Amino acid sequence: MKNIFRVFYWGLFISFVGSMVIGAIGVSAMQISITEGIRPAINFSLGTIVAEVLYVRLLLVAMKWIRRNEHILKYLEWATVVIILLLAIGSFKAAMGHHNAQNPLLSQTMHRFLLGFAMRSISPAAIPFWLGWSAVLYAKGIMKAEKGYYNGYLAGIGIGTLLAHCIFIFGGKYAVIKLNASQDVINFIIGCVFAVTAGLQIWKIMTKKRRGKSKPRRSAQ
Question: I need a surface site. Which of 18, 83, 106, 159 has the fewest CB within 10 A?
Answer without folding.
Answer: 159
